[in-house]
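Case study.
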Amino acid sequence: MEMIMRAYSNDWVSNSMMYKHGVAKAPTGKVHTLSAEVQGVYNYTIGPYSNPVLEVEPGDTIIAETQDAFEGKIRSESDKPSKLLKVPFLNPQCGPIMVKGAQPGDTICIHIEKMVPRGDQPRGTCCMIPEFGGLTGTNLTATLNDPLPEIVRKIHVDEETVHWSDRVKLPYRPHIGTLSTSPEIDSINSLTPDSHGGNMDLPDMGPGTVTYLPVRVEGARVFIGDAHACQGDGEVCGVAVEYPTFTTFTVNVIKNYDIEWPRLEADDFIMAIGSTRPLEDACRIAYRELIYWLERDFGFERYDAYMMLSQCGKVRLGNFVDPKYTMGAAIPKKYIA
Amino acid sequence: MEMIMRAYSNDWVSNSMMYKHGVAKAPTGKVHTLSAEVQGVYNYTIGPYSNPVLEVEPGDTIIAETQDAFEGKIRSESDKPSKLLKVPFLNPQCGPIMVKGAQPGDTICIHIEKMVPRGDQPRGTCCMIPEFGGLTGTNLTATLNDPLPEIVRKIHVDEETVHWSDRVKLPYRPHIGTLSTSPEIDSINSLTPDSHGGNMDLPDMGPGTVTYLPVRVEGARVFIGDAHACQGDGEVCGVAVEYPTFTTFTVNVIKNYDIEWPRLEADDFIMAIGSTRPLEDACRIAYRELIYWLERDFGFERYDAYMMLSQCGKVRLGNFVDPKYTMGAAIPKKYIA
Amino acid sequence: MEMIMRAYSNDWVSNSMMYKHGVAKAPTGKVHTLSAEVQGVYNYTIGPYSNPVLEVEPGDTIIAETQDAFEGKIRSESDKPSKLLKVPFLNPQCGPIMVKGAQPGDTICIHIEKMVPRGDQPRGTCCMIPEFGGLTGTNLTATLNDPLPEIVRKIHVDEETVHWSDRVKLPYRPHIGTLSTSPEIDSINSLTPDSHGGNMDLPDMGPGTVTYLPVRVEGARVFIGDAHACQGDGEVCGVAVEYPTFTTFTVNVIKNYDIEWPRLEADDFIMAIGSTRPLEDACRIAYRELIYWLERDFGFERYDAYMMLSQCGKVRLGNFVDPKYTMGAAIPKKYIA
Amino acid sequence: MEMIMRAYSNDWVSNSMMYKHGVAKAPTGKVHTLSAEVQGVYNYTIGPYSNPVLEVEPGDTIIAETQDAFEGKIRSESDKPSKLLKVPFLNPQCGPIMVKGAQPGDTICIHIEKMVPRGDQPRGTCCMIPEFGGLTGTNLTATLNDPLPEIVRKIHVDEETVHWSDRVKLPYRPHIGTLSTSPEIDSINSLTPDSHGGNMDLPDMGPGTVTYLPVRVEGARVFIGDAHACQGDGEVCGVAVEYPTFTTFTVNVIKNYDIEWPRLEADDFIMAIGSTRPLEDACRIAYRELIYWLERDFGFERYDAYMMLSQCGKVRLGNFVDPKYTMGAAIPKKYIA
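After joint prediction, the assembly is written out as follows.
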């Protein structure tokens, strides 16, 4: 088991499926700034009904000013989340960004290049929110127990270290918690992951990796937000080290290639991602999608892939605290070359 | 994400909790051979009702001749598992081994040192068994769909490589799928994991790690079996590369230290293990036990541990194919030193 | 156990909470016709973004021309559902109907009075749809098994009998499968139930009962559809006897009374309704909401209600086939008078 | 929905499958008394390893002196369950009773005729036990919340009424919570239901019904206990009105008829019973077994039965509080005659 979350490199990305199969064969070099001013109002629901904030070409790069998941409302350790936060106005998203030429049946590629912390220190926030998290009764796992106490932690975050406590310093391992295209006719709150992406909370979805999402509406409508300075598998208390960033990412489009669920590519592995409840069903989705992928693109016979993954598949638990839970199933590129 | 399962070292074990807190402060050097002859009939149920096959002292070492999970009945790729296997006579276990001085309220420690393949090549077996596995209807996730085909794979296994196919060679990463002490009055089939251990199918439970199990009956009654030459997270098709071994392990007893669920220690992490359905509940158990452990032995405050694991906890999916599913929740030793 | 689904009477409704606490103390007598022409395009997603088709006063009655769940596309037993149906364009809904004076924090009441079959015989449709239903792998409980065969049944339905087969005649026990108010900012496909109502598939939600739903947007935005001529608990194959109707219902508003989840009142019981996965969580929601209701409105102490329901609570399984599962928890009015 | 649990009649039993297909075509008239003295030590685990207390012929009747689930240890409302109860010594069972001629592959029939309360008043007990129940974190749905308070209710029970409180009187509707044959080699604690029966907590399993259980060892080894004076669907707080009884039941054997899961027959319905987690899987088992039953014994085609049950199947939730959850799926006899 790898105990410290590793950083991924951007070096391999020119050889990714994103550039092998995408419309753009390399970044265009054009950079769009999606500042808070350009964004205006952030989004709490992901769908086809909101107004576009940006239109880009495949290969273009965007620098987005992401808010933390609490939109900066939790400022001190004496704040009470239950007083400051109001469902469903949680987890503000940048976007929608329209990608020219993206049409239903295509796949969007998002290469996250860089995540730079912004805002005053201590800029990281963790907290325990009543009836939210993995080890407490919730609105869905409804119990009569008294809620856990509300506790806020403000954390110094820089590009090397997350200063958790005097005792514990964690490496800065940023990733995007929520990354989406739009559903066809539904609009899904930004706390929930599903087949369109959403709040997957996958620690791998950071700089140096490419995420693939299904296009279900003209222009794809990309949403991004919920940056985490680091996160453990499962995000057990329900909250990572939430913080505001400048996040730099490049988009691309693979035409006429449809996927049912999100996928991720890193330097040495590919991963399929499922989100639902109970957790075993998220795992079923992820592994089945990975098998379909091996069959379609890598020349494996279906049952051979099934039995092989039983020997070398790797699983990442995104979260088991959101309205739906997320799991990724992965295989080393070494075995599928 | 670490894509290739790493091998653990035995070097650190003299500094493990097993020897720090155990009755034996070092291996006694006494070695017991638990050959197939000594074992006689293997066990398919784990409880207090079977006859002991060996009695050992804390610090003693045992070399057990484990059978593969099918007791060697699947010999060729034309065999039909459904004709050769008969529930509940699956997953034969060595033991019970009585550990002198172990009493209810104590903890048993099992350091797995070495797993050497035995038997004729191809000695590894994988197969698809009707209504068994992660991506099929089963006896519990009951569906009306036709079962998947029965397919048998016989695999060449040596101490370096699992020869999966011409295309794919996997590293030899042995571990014990099933490791148990006895429940107090129940007897649980060897396919099912629970708080006594059992069929956890955790890829980390191999050479170079120490497993801790609760003692619930006089002498603990240790059972061991189900060696895997390698296994992916989740054991998705329901079967790893099953093979017969000589497995060498040393036992110890920590007196007056009670644990509710199994635990595992490696060179650079500690892990708590939960087994139940649905999978999110296994995850809840594992993380709660890990928090209790950090609180009891490492000086962490409960909610600080909860929020910290939300940033740096690591999850291993053992399996989601057995009658109960297994997950481990871990933290690097680096953070708890 | 009551084996034949009973019909409920409308006689008691003048004494329901709907008229005891609602703005209208009796029906206004005003009747609105929501014909297919007035409706125009039916809705497949339930949210705040669609155009209202009707505006009514509390106490007004609506006669809605509901379509069957397949919008009439399945016409003969030789049709293939997989060719005629296209996700997410399933389960067409009438509405949204704006209810004057309804504001967030209020509760909408819907008294279903009558459901009259319409259209040519055989007007009822049941079918087996690939990867949909309770006893098959699905898109969420993802398996590799071949799907079940596609089978269509066309069924003669009149106001007395559902002519299932020569052997089996079932009583006509109509109910509305999908009944909703709008979420605040999300838009949820009409196949999914949640706290706003949606596709609950509760056999009790028919003539003679009152459903209570939370108001989350101005005017409530009521949606209705998915009539079933009869349905078993759980809707196990995924499809009831789907048919088009004239459905007559009256709406009302309880001001300043907020509910988190849907509720239902009949002549002799009250029921709270939960929808999520896994099914035990739907059951937890339903029972907790029922306890909160007994506490708030009927003078019971919380834990007394909890223990009492352990002796006399009744559970109705709506469905375990939709993207979320629905359960109702009920108590006889006799015990809470 | 039937809101008050109905009483079943014994009149129809001479026409049941028990006497139609059983070895005994009518009761033998021989009555065995299984008093506390004859029983000696009660059993907390159900398996092949305990000593038989009685041997009977098919058609014989037994009057068993059942203990309440707490073995009478909770005597007053000031008692603390957590101090008096010790896992796994809960839910004491009478038996094992050996049934002559019963062999693996046969089915045991148990007709419960009468349940008479015994012991001093108030002889009924309900309580809230820390980390046990449907609306609380538990040892499996592990949370960090403080446990609910311990509350004990002592209840006057007679053959007409359960005197819950001054406000609420419930009808006496006795049933057996735990009814089992022995697994083949496992021994399962009496709190857990599974395919051998066990702690199913089905309100229908009372006087006037016949339960069918699989025979997996010579003599079947029947265990019985856990009488409830009444119980709601789901047994939501984890405890029914537990009480000691004289329970009268008659056993029979159907030779060469094997069942995988328990079944129940009443005057007007048949029911198949599944027990596992999550709850939807218990429902899947129950409905699949019912379909198999309709196919094997009642001449229905498989998919016709599947679609028909989608229109007229009835579900009873036994419990969602035990280590495994129980659901029954039923169909009226009227439709299968």
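Observations recorded in class. Chain C is about 15% helix and 35% strand. Chain C has one domain: 11-258. We will return to this complex in the next lecture.
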